[in-house]
Design brief:
23 strands, 5% helix, 9-stranded mixed beta sheet, single chain
Length: 320
């Protein structure tokens, strides 16, 4: 199932002046800057694919978003080639963030377009809901949903929403060497325990979401790349598989998007020390047998304090 993104160039996007992380933002420029009909069409296509596979093959791309030190969101559609090519898409004023899970584009119950997701600011966990009006004005609102997150180095989110039983998890990589899992229950989060043995791990993103397990793609400080399959069953331990033993030490962040109908993935590795990113293509992950193509450096400056995957609520990751 093809990953869909909001492939919209937004040069001169209307900026939003965020007054506080726990409140709304106020539009500073009411001029339309977003082709909302196109955005809605892409979400509708994703909804259609969620119920029936498309017979038409579509080109793959990554949708990579970041939040910079001033709280400005920038995203790019990155297309695989040697070297990769990139087009700017969604851009708007947000709030500061040091880590973030995936951002999901969706319709609400009133058929209004918005994005949502989780992010860390200092020691607090926030949920944002970013409204995208038909006029093109983008208005983010962030709500604090948890405290005590100071020791978490990064987070990743899964969102299995296309069938029952559904689940929405947030994974937190803690400086104490454990990987924690929380389930979203309504507007609250329920702790589901932790898994030790992750002291040497550095960056992570979700590559699979199924009814029975999620899979994370994770790097180590020494540069290894692993898949970490985590069954939904609370008492079951993760299953780690080594994909590559070296070559991934530089990356502080990973993003992943599904590519093709056979479970392939486009992965970007982000080096925050050099503000650069590299795009890779992987076959369906299967340990060291996984095929990999390195496309090279993306022609974008990734100067964010956090970088994450943008996607829709209706597209599921099936990389492992």
């Amino acid at each position: 199932m093809k990953f869909q993104r909001l492939a919209l160039a937004l040069s001169g996007a209307g900026l939003l002046a965020a007054t506080a992380v726990s409140g709304s933002a106020v539009a500073a420029d009411p001029k339309p800057s977003l082709t909302v009909k196109t955005a809605k069409a892409k979400v509708a296509e994703a909804q259609q694919r969620a119920s029936a596979k498309s017979a038409v093959a579509e080109p793959c791309s990554s949708w990579v978003g970041s939040v910079d030190a001033t709280g400005f969101v920038k995203s790019n559609d990155v297309y695989p080639a040697k070297p990769p090519t990139a087009e700017p898409s969604l851009e708007f004023k947000f709030v500061g963030a040091r880590a973030a899970g995936n951002w999901y584009l969706a319709f609400d119950a009133a058929d209004r377009l918005y994005m949502y997701g989780l992010f860390l600011q200092g020691g607090n966990l926030y949920r944002h809901s970013t409204a995208i009006a038909d006029s093109g004005v983008i208005t983010p609102t962030a709500t604090k949903v948890g405290s005590g997150w100071t020791s978490f180095k990064t987070i990743a989110t899964s969102n299995y929403s296309i069938a029952q039983p559904r689940h929405a998890y947030v994974y937190g990589l803690n400086a104490n060497g454990s990987l924690y899992r929380y389930a979203q229950v309504g507007t609250a989060f329920k702790a589901l325990g932790s898994f030790p043995g992750f002291k040497s791990f550095k960056a992570m993103t979700v590559i699979s979401e199924t009814a029975t397990y999620d899979t994370l793609l994770m790097t180590t400080t020494a540069g290894a790349l692993y898949t970490v399959r985590i069954p939904v069953a609370a008492t079951t331990k993760p299953v780690l598989k080594l994909v590559r033993s070296t070559g991934f030490a530089a990356y502080e962040a990973l993003t992943a998007n599904t590519c093709g109908e056979r479970g392939g993935s486009l992965v970007t590795g982000i080096d925050h020390d050099t503000d650069s990113g590299v795009q890779y293509a992987f076959s369906k992950f299967n340990g060291a047998a996984t095929a990999m193509t390195a496309y090279g450096t993306i022609p974008v400056v990734f100067d964010g304090t956090t970088t994450t995957s943008f996607t829709t609520h209706y597209d599921q990751l099936v990389g492992e």
